[in-house]
Amino acid sequence: MNPATALATVLVDELVRCGLTDVVLAPGSRSAPLALAAHADSRIRLHVRIDERSASFLALGLARRGERPVALVCTSGTAAANFHPAVMEAHESGVPLLLLTADRPPELRDTGASQTMDQVKLYGTAVRWFSEAGVPEERPGQVAYWRSLACRAYNRSLGPADPGPVHLNLAFREPLIPDGDDSWCEPLDGGTTGPWIRARVAPPAVALHLPPTRRGVLVVGDGAPNVRRYVAAAGMAGWPILSEPNGGARYGDHAMSSYHFLLGTPEFADAHRPEVVVTLGRPGLSRPLLSWLKHAGEHIVVASDLTRWPDPTRSATQVAQAVEIPITAGEDGWLRSWRRADAAAREAIDGVLDASGLSEPRLARDLVDALPNGSLLVSGSSMPIRDLDQAMRPRRGLRILANRGVAGIDGMVSTAMGAALAHNGPAFALMGDLTFLHDQNGLVLGPREPRPDLCLVVVNNDGGGIFSLLPQAALRDPFERVFGTSHGVDLAYVAAATGTPYTFVQEPEQLAKALRGEGVRIVEVRTERATNAELHAAIREAAGAAIRRVL
Questions:
Q1: Which pLDDT score is estimated for 327?
Q2: Coil, strand or helix: which one is 19?
Q3: Parallel, antiparallel, or unpaired: how do β-strands 454-460 and 427-432 relate?
Q4: How far apart are CA 241 and CA 259, in angstroms?
Q5: pLDDT tens digit string along 125-152?
C-alpha cells in the first residue's frame, strides 16, 4: 500500500470510530486519497460539490443542525482558500468542522510548482487547533500517530466547552491512488474497542446562584446553551424572556415577541430597567436591546467556555458556565407590565401587517405561522432574520437557524441544504435575492447526491433591501448603484437552469399552498424596497403609540 492511501484510510477510519458520519468533498487531484477513502467507507454519508465555497457551507449547515463534527475535504491551492468564509462563521458560531486540506509535499513549496501555496495556518486564529501532519511514510509508529491525531482533531472540534473548526493540513506525495498492494509494515486497524483515545468530559461547573429578584430578564441570542432549562427557570421566577428567533426561546407566556419595539420606546425602556439580566448566546439583532443591556444593574453572561464569551456591549458584570435563577413568590407586577405592553404592541404590529399585502415582514410572520410542527427554518442573515425578530409571534415546534457568527450572506443556499440533510423533518429557508444569487451554485447537485426536503423562500426586491433602512438611503445620487445594486435577474430562469421546481407567489393567501411539496424547490415573492422601508417606519410608529397608551 502506498503511504498516501494508508494515511487517508486510517484517518477516515479513526474519525468514523470517533463518531463522524458525514464528509463533504470538493473534488481535486491532490485530495484523491481522502476522497477515495471516504467513498469506500460504507459508514459515511458522502456529499460532493463542485464549488468549494458551497461545499464548505453545506458542511457548516450539516454540522450546525447535527451538532457534531463534519469533515470537509479539498485539494491544494485556492480550493482551501475558498473554505475561509465558512471557517470564520464556524469559528464565531462555535460550529464543529474538520478541515482536511490536501497539500503538496514540502519539497514542492516555494518552487513555483503548480497549485502550490502556503497552507500552514491558512485560517489563522479562526480555528480552534491546527496541525500539519507529516508526509506519510511506511515505518512503524505511523498508525498510532495518525489515529491519535484524528482523535485529537475530532474531540477538539466537538468541544464540548468550545466547539469550532479544526484544520489538518495533509501533504501527500504521489502515487495518490491505491496501487493494489495491501501490505504495510504494521497493522493499520485500530482494534475493536472504539476510538484510539477516549476523551472524557469534565463534570459540570458549580452554578452561580442569584439572589431572589422580581425585576429580572432572560435574554436569549444565537447559539444559546441549555435553552429549555433556562426558559423553565425564568418562568418560575416570573421573568420576561427576550429571545431572538434563532435563540430557540420564543415560546410560552413569558416570551415577549415585540421586545425590539418595547425597548425602542424610551418611556418603556426607562421604566423597565432590570436589576439583573441573564444572557444566553450572542444577541445582536436589535440595537434597542443592546443599548438597554448597558443599563442593567447586573448583567450575567452564561458561556460554556470562560476564555471566550459574547459581550458586544461590554456591559457584562459576571460570566458563568451555569446560573441558578431563583424561584420567587409574591407580586408579579413586573411581568404583568411587560405582558400588557407586549400585547398592545403585538396587536398594533399585526394590524399594520394585515393591511400591508404580501410585504417582507408579513411574509416572515405568516411563514412561521404556516410551517408544520417539527420543521426547520434557516434564515438569511440580513433582512429576513430581522423581519422574523420583529414580526414573528411566539410558537413551539419550530427550529430556526441563521449564520449569525459573522452575519454574512455567504453560502446560505448550501447552509440550508446541509441543515436540511441533518434535520429529521421538513425544512424551509427564508432569504433575500442577493443572498440567493450569491450561492446559486448551491442548487447544483449531482444525480447521486443526497437530496433534502427543502423549500427555499426567496424575497426578491431586486437588490440590497437592508440598505433602504439605513442612513445610506439618504444618499440619493450614489445609493442605487453602490448600495441598492439592482441586478434584474429573473429567478425563474435560475431555477430552470438547475431543474429546480419554482413557484411565484403574489398574494398572502397563496403562501401556504406554495410551501407544499417534496425535495428542493423555490418559492419567490417580489417586493419593493422603498415600500418596505415605509412599512417598517409605520410598524415602528404604530407599536410605539400602542406601548405608550398602556404605560
A1: 85
A2: coil
A3: parallel
A4: 9
A5: 999 999 999 999 999 999 999 999 999 9
| Contact present, 544 and 479 (Cβ < 8 Å) | no
Residue 253 CA to residue 219 CA, distance in Å, equals 15
Distance CA 276, CA 287 (A): 19
411 phi and psi angles, rounded to 5 deg: 60, 30
What is the CATH code of the structural domain delimited by 208-343? 3.40.50.1220
Calpha distance 216→493 (Å, rounded): 52
Residue 140 amino acid letter: P
> Which fold, 360-526?
Rossmann fold (3.40.50)
pTM of this structure: 0.94
| CATH superfamily placement of domain 3-171 | Thiamin diphosphate (ThDP)-binding fold, Pyr/PP domains (3.40.50.970)
> What's the residue count for the chain?
551
3-state secondary structure at position 458: strand
Q: Which amino acid is at 266?
A: P
The CA–CA distances, whole Å, from 382 to 314, 385, 430, 540 equal 24, 6, 11, 19
Here the cell at position 98 is 474538520
Give CA–CA dist 461/438, Å, rounded: 15
Is residue 469 very low, low, confident or very high in pLDDT (cuts 50, 70, 90)? Answer: confident
Q: Residue 159 — pLDDT band, cuts 50, 70, 90?
A: confident
**Spatial distance between the Cα atoms of 10 and 277, rounded to a whole number of angstroms:** 49
How far apart CA 162 and CA 165 sit, in angstroms, is 10
The answer to whether the bond into 175 is cis (omega within 30° of 0) is: yes
Contact call for residues 99 and 128 (beta carbons, < 8 A): no
pLDDT, average across residues 510-536: 96
Separation CA 256–CA 347 (nearest Å): 13
Q: What DSSP string describes 105-145?
A: -GGGTTTT-TT----TTTTGGGSSEEEEEPPP-SSTTHHHH
